[in-house]
Automatic annotation (TrEMBL):
<dbReference type="InterPro" id="IPR001638">
    <property type="entry name" value="Solute-binding_3/MltF_N"/>
</dbReference>
<dbReference type="Pfam" id="PF00497">
    <property type="entry name" value="SBP_bac_3"/>
</dbReference>
<keyword id="KW-0732">Signal</keyword>
<protein>
    <submittedName>
        <fullName>ABC transporter substrate-binding protein</fullName>
    </submittedName>
</protein>
Length: 303
């Protein structure tokens, strides 16, 4: 079974420290939010707040589990503050629902069990919404993301024809298990040179390999690759199109009324443009939704 089916696609951050890019230094923290970032905290919408389950409304807080680093979704700045696009989106959703936002850092493997046990309201940590997980949880989907390659400018990498190349990936992610290694097997089957796969424990080290020329290309989740390219200040560029897209979702207990309440809040953010503004502040401008989805299905009453 692929990592996509078991965990988030890519368990570690890819965060390139802008002050050290000339030396190709990669770290797990950043100096802060992206240039031009500003907080987007909308006003409460009473009719949406009325949809929030009574226990959550009584508590007045939306508690979510998250597991940094996984830039740009969640990671820590140089002061140790949790930041990222999921944190910004969660804070905006909570505001629309009339709740305070309470992100709690924890081990990734403990987040979904905590949601199921009721000790957390939701999980926001780069979760892929898939059929296996839908047996136990509902997902308020907020983005479609796939695999995206990057190369050094001037290289001639073709992700569809990578035989003989050296490609960096994060170990056990779908970039390794579903993308690069199967392509390498296909190369061998055609009598061509295989791909040399450089597998790293973290996505930041995979990016470093591409930055320094140790690898011809990087294969990673599309938002992670886009973040690396943006932070590289021209030392990396996207190559080819995103492929194998799947939804990222916010996990809530199965059949909980929190799912439609949160989806209504997300639809409000979509309608007002705040949703797109939040994601684009983090260099995410593809895979955006034009309507809120629960388990990839529109809210009742939406076309």
């Amino acid at each position: 079974m692929t990592r996509r089916a078991l965990t988030r696609r890519g368990a570690a951050a890819l965060a390139i420290a802008s002050a050290s890019l000339s030396a190709a230094c990669v770290t797990n923290t950043e100096g802060g939010n992206p240039e031009g970032w500003e907080p987007i905290v909308p006003a409460e919408v009473p009719e949406i707040a009325a949809l929030v389950p009574a226990p959550v409304a009584a508590d007045g807080t939306l508690s979510v589990g998250t597991n940094p680093p996984f830039a740009p979704f969640e990671f820590k700045d140089s002061q140790g503050t949790l930041i990222g696009v999921e944190l910004d989106l969660g804070r905006a959703l909570a505001a629309v629902m009339g709740l305070d936002f309470d992100p709690q850092e924890m081990d990734f493997s403990l987040i979904l069990p905590a949601v199921q046990a009721g000790s957390l309201d939701a999980g926001m940590s780069g979760f892929t919404d898939n059929e296996e997980r839908r047996q136990s949880y509902d997902f308020v989907d907020f983005l479609y993301a796939g695999i995206q390659w990057a190369q050094q400018p001037g290289s001639d990498v073709d992700p569809a024809n990578p035989c003989g190349l050296t490609v960096a990936v994060q170990r056990t992610t779908v970039s390794e298990t579903d993308d690069v290694r199967p392509k390498s097997d296909d190369c061998l089957a055609r009598g061509e040179d295989p791909i040399t796969v450089l597998s790293f424990d973290t996505s930041d080290n995979a990016a470093l390999a591409a930055l320094t020329g140790r690898a011809d290309a990087l294969s990673a989740d599309s938002p992670v690759t886009a973040w690396a390219v943006e932070r590289s200040r021209g030392d990396l560029e996207l190559v080819g199109e995103m492929f194998d897209a799947a939804p990222y979702g916010i996990a809530v207990p199965k059949d909980s009324p929190l799912a439609p309440a949160m989806a209504a809040a997300l639809q409000h953010l979509i309608d007002t443009g705040d949703y797109a503004r939040i994601l684009r502040q983090w260099n995410i401008d593809s895979g955006l939704l034009d309507q809120a989805l629960i388990n990839e299905q529109p809210l009742e009453g939406q076309p």
